[in-house]
Amino acid sequence: MASESGSITGGMLRRRAFAALAAATAVTRPARAQGGVSGKVTVVTSFSNDVTGPFKRAFEAAHPGTTLDVQNRNTTAGVRFLQETRSNNAVDLFWASAPDAFEVLKRAGLLEAYKPRAEGIPERIGPYPINDPEGYVTGFAASGYGIMWNERYMRANRLPEPKEWADLARPAYHDHVIITAPSRSGTTHLTIETILQGEGWEKGWGTIKGFSGNLRQITERSFGVPDAVNSGQVGIGIVIDFFAFSAQGAGFPVKFVYPSVTTVVPANIGIVKNAPNLPAAKAFIDFLLSPRGQEILLEPTIRRLPVNPATYAKAPAGYPNPFTGSIGMPSLQFDVGVSEKRYPVVDALYDQCIGTNLEGLKRATKAIGDVEIRLARRDNAAARALLAEARALIDAMPVTVQEAASDEVAGAFAGRGGGPRQAELEQRWAGFAREKYQAAAARAADAAKAAG
Amino acid sequence: MSLATTQATAAIQPAPRARRWPARPGEVVAFALVALFLLVFLVVPVVTVVTVAFQDRATGGFTLAHVGDFLANDLFRTSFLNSLYVSLMSVVVASLIALPLAYFTTRFEFRGALLVQTLGVLPLIMPPFAGAVAMTLLFGRTGSVNLLLGDAFDINIPFMEGLNGVIFVQSVHYFPFILLNLTASLKNIDRAMEESAQNLGAHGFRLFRRIVLPLAMPGYVAGASLVFIKVFDDLATPLLLNVREMLAPQAYLRITSVGLEDPIGYVISVVLILFSVLSLWVSSLALRGKDYATVQRGGGGLARRRMSRGQAVAAYALILLILALVLAPHVGLFLLSIATIWSFAPLPDGYTMAHYGRVFAESSQFITNTLLYAGLAGLIDVILGTTIAYLVLRARMAGARWLDYAAMSALAVPGLVLGIGYLRTFFGITLPDGTSLAAFWGVIVLALAVRRLPYALRACTAALQQVSASLEEAAENLGARRLRVVRRIMLPLMAGGIAAGFVTSFATAAVELSATLMLVQSSNDAPLAYGLYVFMQSPAGRGAGAALGIVAVVIVGLSTFLSHLIAERGGGRRSA
Fold first, then answer.
1. Which residue of A has its CA nearest to B137?
2. Which chain A positions have a beta carbon within 8 Å of B73's beta carbon?
3. Beta-sheet strands, E only, within A299-444
4. Which residues cross the membrane (chain B) (predicted)?
């Protein structure tokens, strides 16, 4: 981000902005410095000041006469705000990570379609499409999920550095891991869904329950995870990459790794229906996707992955690049249709089988881990067989992959009548998991006896 | 014996059961205004949101099926019992913290009493997120205390884990409700009561248990019921400690899932509201049929006595110990605000003032907004609180009790529900300049006032309970009109309680976040809590967030000190 390149891209941007203005000739606002783009652009966002600040300054400099009014709200509050104020909308843009929030807004008819003018941005990043096919949502940056840890914590507890999701299921990590509930974080949901699509329903849930048995906490806020790791309350967090990178940028003793099964998901922006300042809203999206806007993503306090592959040429050495296959699973094709159909079902399954039964799951996992450590010293076939049974009990799911997407189950979550209600299903699933975990703990106790 | 003494003094007046004054037009108007306020700014917005609890999701018709689901669910039954247990235990622990502070500082010649009472309010001002981070840095599993204990003795105390962790944090956070109300109450006790008891041979702990505490009961019950209801309805602390098996977090988690209209969340909200009103009714039973009013106000309350040297040392040691415990989160917050990096270590790696520079450069408008909003909200609250207390205790109007219950139910309404309700109710209304009413900053003030009204209301009610109606009757007999009686007799005698109410409402409104986050429409109109939230969402903003939190604590602390000072001076003039 040398100043020369800044001025070059600034010039390019001005040309682009003029093009944008030409497109918006219907607007008859009094022309300011740049032509038609002027006035206040109101953005509702879940991003912190550290992210919005540099964009605000650069955008206002590139378009004199505009002010970017940033309203920080968490994703839930932001979505509710747009829903409740649609009758007299005063917001131009919604800017956030969580893809599910945009899905909700799009379905509610709260977004305006826009095809950005930026060039050189591919269709997909990893397995995930960057933009909404109908143009309601535009991806401007990408982020991958991975494992973050606090080095001091790991040293003090003599823990090895993890590399893969399966590593986190090892007994050594018991009670040292933290995650956000997928029902609370759209990006965690996508990680769970990616594992389920990448490894299949049964095996995938096995992997998820494997590391979930070692959890210390399931937080309700995605930032709670990096917060706990940064301050050393918990050693290892399952987080989206920029949380770790920006923590490193702020000086915290943390490290991060992308496991080989991971997904790279776009962070998004969309124009709100009936935006009061439509031309400027479009100009801001174009600015985000412009070379200058994409470069801002590389700043140490932001650290997100640009969606324009050309921008990586300006990135510091070692900057992860999803377009060269260094992260993500190029082989995996993420099926958006499958994901959408079972979205709330996957969340509820995680909440009921793991969230509310975390104590039971941890007890069974710990019991199995203890026997495993003993077996590593002195093997015993009978005990191994019992452990396998215990693991199968933990991995059992109350619904099959077909049932999860069936009209009966998915309908209960959409509020359609006829079938069982959501609360009834949840009660059933929680009871199922509780019984299985108790049985698994009992089986592990038998295995401990067999091991002698 | 204590009550016998009370009634002996109070014998000059008839038991205040029967109506003493016919309904006055002024009282009817006051009733109507308060009822209208509560209807428009509390009942209607909340009802528009929680009706989902009784709607069939397919047809939109009325149904009780969701309530049935709630009752049939094991998780919710466990959650209910957990919430009940935690609330009761928190009242016990909070009382243990508050009683010595209140007793020693009001009852004895105690240097620094005002300072102790001011510091005692600070725990209420636990800024969102920042307070939580500071608490875990100190008391968490790898917090400073446990890291030091682990090095020295190889032990780890789970302060912040499970239900006991919730009880610990809640007690430290909310004991000031008891402290403030109890202190106000103690100051109102006629010193003759205590002197009579001493003449009859009671002293020491017996004097406290049999005379002082029973006479201060209205204040204690007011504070304890606030602690109970607040802990029952609080979601921030359980969520911070990751305890989900309680009612309020269950409701919150269900209401705030993106894109899901799960009716159970709203059913739980309704249950919380009903239970809060029920517990309020139970606490009013504790005071029923007893008269706490005393006629004399001797020099601002109980005679202060000197402690012997040994007693003094013990009392100071106890109070310092308690203060060290309850102010630890603020010490942690301060350290965080001047820390460079603080991670997995008993103390930060290094120190800097840069965070304060950033806060003052970027967010000074937050400070003025906060003072304005919280100050106005506190003012609205004491006006409404005094009016409701008057209507309930003096005018004895049919239905006045329901104003009290309705106002108190605000404690149980999640801020998010109130925020959504406000948008739904007021967004369609446009102001003359074309913007929406909901975009006007005054709406934030009203939301804060409604959310914090219960605090001021309990304090004002307790204060009026201790004022003897015979004083007002005497003034009326001497020809004073009712309004003049209220202004010249009743209000000055209630001053301490009103100040306590203002302080609690103001201090807690200054750090409110959940409704604010929904209603703020421009960062120029945003209060401090919002700025704090914005900072605390990024690793680099943690120190700045803590610095802003310290600014909030200092501002609210100073305001508290000032209002105590004003209330004290008012007391001095009264006795002159």
1. A231
2. 423, 426-427
3. 305-306
4. 28-54, 84-104, 116-139, 167-186, 207-229, 264-287, 313-345, 371-393, 405-423, 429-450, 489-511, 544-567
Residue A346 within a domain: yes
Q: Could you read off the pLDDT of A360-392 as tens digits, one per residue?
A: 999 999 999 999 999 988 888 999 999 999 999
Span B245-272, pLDDT tens digits = 898 888 888 877 765 567 888 888 888 8
Cα dist from A449 to A364, A391, A437, A443, A445, whole Å: 15, 17, 19, 10, 6
**Is the residue at B17 inside a domain?**
no
Distance (Å) from the alpha carbon of A37 to chain B's nearest alpha carbon:
21
Q: Is the model more confident about B291 or about B576? A: B291
Residues of chain B neighbouring A251 (CB-CB closer than 8 A): 340-341
Judgement on whether residues A223 and A358 belong to the same structural domain of the protein: yes
Looking at A324, A347, A364, the residue that finishes a domain is A324
Exposed, middle or buried: residue B49 (CB in 10 Å: 0-12, 13-18, 19+)?
buried
**Whether residue A353 has pLDDT greater than 90:** yes
Instruction: Indicate which of A80, A153, A340 best probes the interface with B, i.e. most B CBs within 10 Å of its own CB.
Output: A80
Nearest by CB: B427 against A87, A100, A230? A87
- The domain tally of chain B equals 1
Q: Mutation target for A interface from B141, B344, B418: give the one with most A CBs within 10 A.
A: B344
Same domain membership, residue A96 and residue A127: yes
- What percent of the residues of chain A are helix, what percent strand, and what percent coil, each to the nearest 5? 50, 15, 35
* Residue ranges making up the domain that contains B486: 67-289+306-340+356-575
Say which residues have a Cβ less than 8 Å from residue A291's Cβ, sequence separation at least 6: A9, A12, A13, A308, A310, A311
Shortest CA distance from A53: residue in chain B:
B362
Q: What is the reported pLDDT for B192?
A: 78
Calpha distance A177→A212 (Å, rounded): 8
| Residue whose token pair is 């606002």 | A29
Q: What is the CATH number of the domain that holds A207?
A: 3.40.190.10
A427:B540 CB<8 A:
no
pLDDT tens digits, A434-451? 999 999 999 999 999 998
Contacts of A417 in chain B (CB under 8 A): 56-59
The boundaries of the domain holding residue A61 are 3-141+266-324
Phi, psi of A138 (to 5 degrees): -115, 125
Task: Sort out which chain A residues have CB atoms less than 8 A from B142's CB and list them.
Answer: 153, 232-233
Nearest residue on chain A to B534, judged by CA atoms?
Answer: A48
Q: Can you give the CATH number for the domain in which B78 is found? A: 1.10.3720.10
Rounded Cα distance, B416 and A279, in Å: 33
- Nearest-Å Rg of the Cα atoms of chain A is 24
Identity (one letter) of the amino acid at A449? K
Residues A274 and A314 in one domain: yes
Contact A227 B133 (CB under 8 A): yes
pLDDT score at A419:
76
Residues A128 and A8 in one domain: yes
pLDDT tier, A301 (very low <50, low <70, confident <90, very high otherwise): confident
ipTM above 0.90, yes or no: no
Looking at the structure, tell me whether residues A318 and A343 fall in a common domain. no
Is the model more confident about B212 or about B574? B212
What's the one-letter identity of residue B389? A
Of A10-19, A208-217, B285-294, which has the strongest mean pLDDT? A208-217
Report which of B432, B423, B410 is spatially closest to residue B509, judged by C-alpha positions: B410
- List the structure tokens of B48: 């528009």
Q: How far is CA B500 from CA B90, B93, B107, B567, in A?
A: 21, 21, 18, 9
Residue A234's SS3 state is coil
Per the domain annotation, does B199 fall within a domain? Answer: yes
Q: What is the pLDDT of residues B148-176, one digit of tens each?
A: 998 888 888 888 888 888 898 889 888 99
In chain A, what residues touch B342 (CB-CB under 8 Å)?
231
